[in-house]
Amino acid sequence: MTGSPLIVKPAAPASPVGSVMALDGWWPSIDYTDMREALRIGETCTHARLEGALETAAVTVLDDLAEWGAARRADGFTSLAAVAPAMVINGKPRLVTLFVGAVRYAAAALLAEFSTDFSATGSKESQAEAKQCLADYYEKLRLQNIRSILGATRVAVELI
Questions:
Q1: How far apart are CA 49 and CA 14, in angstroms?
Q2: Which residues contact 93 (CB under 8 A, 6 or more apart)?
Q3: Alpha-carbon dihedral of residues 54, 58, 60, 61, nearest 10 degrees?
Q4: pLDDT, tens digit (0-9, with 9 covering 90-100), for 38-68
């Protein structure tokens, strides 16, 4: 019996199952599939593209938290999860949730910003504006998570 041309193979997963972006061990790893599910990033975004965005995002967030993290390490904490272990959200340390969120939002902002079309005419122009608004929104969420980790207020007001 010959194979039928109507048989459809399921699509390969967008990211390999169980793939994570490992950091230095003090900062938590980021799961690619969890990121896709949390921010509804579909298969049109290749694993390589998501990986690049997450790596760049991690660098940005780690730069934001460099002094804070160094101070916690100097205080003897062995991981981010150990800094405030009693503060738990859905079974996970609050600071881990904030950190993972910050990295995810930074990566999502990059993906949204760089997925705009180069031809900005008519409806493409409004799509580009919508993607830029989404990128700005993700950037705002990243900053909120960073500021929460740092214990800083979310609003900065300067008198002129």
A1: 11
A2: 80, 81, 83, 84, 85, 87
A3: 130
A4: 998 888 888 999 999 999 999 999 999 999 9
Q: Which of 2, 62, 7, 64 is nearest to 30 (CA)?
A: 62
pLDDT (tens digit per residue) in 95-123: 999 999 999 999 999 999 876 544 445 55
Measure the CA–CA gap between 128 and 81, rounded to whole angstroms: 38
Cα first-last separation, the chain: 82
Distance CA 75, CA 119 (A): 52
Output the pTM of the full model.
Answer: 0.81
Phi/psi-derived region of residue 155, left when phi > 0, alpha when psi is between -120 and 50, beta in every other case: beta
